Amino acid sequence: MANIYMLNEINNRAPLVSSNKLEDLPFNQYPSSQIELENQLACLKHDLNIALSLGIQLNTKNSLLIKNNKSFLERVCQLEDEVRELKNQITHKDISFTKVKNKITIKLEKIQAYQSKIKELEMKYLLAQKDLSEIDSLR
User: Fold this and answer.
1) Which of 5-11's residues contact partners 24+ apart within 8 Å by CB, and which partners?
2) pTM summary value
């Protein structure tokens, strides 16, 4: 989660507004002299400069974060494309594997059928030899 900072925290924990704030004065009281007003104006200008500087820093950091985010999003899209391609390859290999497995199963069944046929023919051959021997013995 991104850290969230207050403006006064970004400025090395220095207060953003000086201690001579107009707000600190009672509502119905005005500064007593022009020098005091000028001092307050100088403090306000200083505070404004700090605020502007911090705003610029924030904008710079924000721009960098946006750029990094865009880069991360592009990389995520690339990785998603790679994952999709790999899934397609796996699917094609699974299909090919299934086809080959089915062909092997069919060939094994044929081999077993041929083996059964061979055994049947061998039995017939043995019976035929036995019959021939019996015929020879009868002569």
Assistant:
1) 7/51, 7/54, 10/54, 10/57, 10/58, 11/50, 11/54
2) 0.50
